[in-house]
Design goal:
The chain contains 15 helices and 13 strands. With 400 residues, it is mainly alpha-helical. The strands form six sheets. Strands 4-7-8 form a three-stranded antiparallel sheet. A two-stranded antiparallel ribbon has the order 1-2. Strand 7 and strand 8 form a beta hairpin.
């Protein structure tokens, strides 16, 4: 047990949950964070550990994982701001950069690693970065820090991309990639949320209406994956249900509001509670959100948790729905926390000994999914961090 871990308050509540989120922030940034090409003023995350700095530059890029890393740092930055935003409030100590400053360096690193641009071939990737930099811009405004102009330029560039991808083909929606053969929830939902948060309410509602008409499954109360145009030019529905698709739809429904959107938000939260959970193995009767393993799937449930936390705090929703959303987030966060394990001196990551690793699956301990010596993927650690931040937000919102 590290000294930082030993200082965590023993009881549940806003202080303990915030401290857990801080410990996750410390661990993920320490284990995975590094400069890009050793350049000062940059930050980037390795997609896997153990690995060497240069070796990481030749691994798959995973642009969208980095975008969610920005979001996690913004979550931590908001808590720092709530603590007074003094050097003493910084998650990693008074002599280290604030979470907001580190997020800004990460955005710089993303641009450089992405060949001096924020544009890539996948509209969902760009939507996640647009959402995270929009939140970073608001954090900068609240903390009176610089970087707002740069973030506004990112927003302008990516908005043009979303405008070009949100067409009348297949009746509406947003293309997933520049191949333009697949319109899906993973792209349409975060773009709708982005439009809603930037004041393009009509565009946001049009995208939600398309999702409701073409990809909402009323029997399950959840959104299907997408519609693909096959080689014969026919539209084929991809009927898979993924946790992360429900998250940004829920966020957009809440952002736009109105009776119909809030009713649909209620339906989604209730359906998630019924269908997208598993029983926690060591606590019979306690259900946690379903997770999807490693790789891209290692991020999915973290994304859903972020938006369930918003639902838990939204007074426009029925109390039972808010309670369901809160319970799903808190129980999943507790499972990730209880299943954590410290890095030991005997494993390849020994230089980070005492820092925490989290399981890829909340119903199993980290010692099971990531035993000493196993390769650990960034996506899964960001997921646990996101869930712990969501739990801290739920507790903070419920505290008078």
């Amino acid at each position: 047990m590290t000294s930082q871990e030993a200082e965590l308050p023993p009881a549940d509540g806003p202080i303990a949950r915030a401290a857990r989120a801080t410990e996750a922030a410390r661990s993920v940034t320490a284990v995975f964070g590094q400069r890009l090409f050793f350049l000062p003023g940059t930050h980037i995350a390795a997609v896997q550990r153990p690995s060497k700095r240069v070796e990481n530059l030749f691994r798959p890029w995973h642009y969208w994982w980095q975008a969610h890393y920005v979001d996690c740092l913004v979550d931590t930055g908001l808590r720092e701001l709530g603590n007074g935003a003094t050097p003493a409030a910084r998650f990693n100590g008074p002599d280290r950069p604030s979470a907001g400053r580190l997020a800004s360096r990460l955005v710089t690193g993303i641009r450089l690693r992405n060949l001096l641009t924020f544009v890539n071939n996948y509209y969902d990737d760009m939507a996640w970065l647009a959402l995270s930099t929009l939140r970073l811009e608001k954090l900068a405004e609240e903390s009176r820090r610089t970087g707002r102009r740069r973030n506004a330029r990112i927003r302008k560039t990516l908005t043009l991309q979303f405008d070009s991808a949100s067409t009348d083909d297949l009746g509406g929606g947003t293309f997933w990639s520049k191949k333009r053969d697949f319109k899906n929830t993973p792209a349409t939902a975060p773009v709708a949320l982005y439009y809603a948060r930037t004041g393009n309410l009509a565009k946001a509602q049009a995208l939600l209406d398309w999702l409701d008409a073409r990809l909402f499954d009323p029997d399950q109360g959840l959104y299907l994956d997408g519609i693909r145009i096959n080689a014969a030019g026919e539209a084929v529905v991809e009927s898979a249900i993924y946790t992360y698709n429900q998250g940004p739809v829920l966020g957009a429904l809440l952002e736009l509001g109105g009776a119909a959107n809030l009713a649909r938000a209620t339906t989604v939260v209730e359906a998630v509670g019924r269908s997208l959970t598993r029983e926690r193995g060591d606590t019979p009767g306690t259900r946690v959100l379903r997770c999807d393993g490693t790789g891209d799937g290692g991020l999915f449930t973290g994304i859903l948790s972020r938006y369930l936390a918003l639902a838990a705090a939204d007074a426009r929703l029925p109390g039972t729905v808010r309670n369901t959303a809160a319970r799903l987030v808190l129980d999943t966060a507790d499972a990730f926390w209880d299943g954590r394990r410290p890095i030991t001196p005997a494993e390849p990551l020994a230089r980070h000994r005492g820092k925490l690793l989290f399981s890829a699956l909340p119903e199993k301990p980290a010692a099971s999914t990531y035993p000493p010596g196993a390769a650990v993927e960034l996506s899964t650690q960001l997921q646990a961090w996101t869930v712990l931040e969501a739990a801290a937000a739920v507790e903070r919102a419920s505290t008078p």
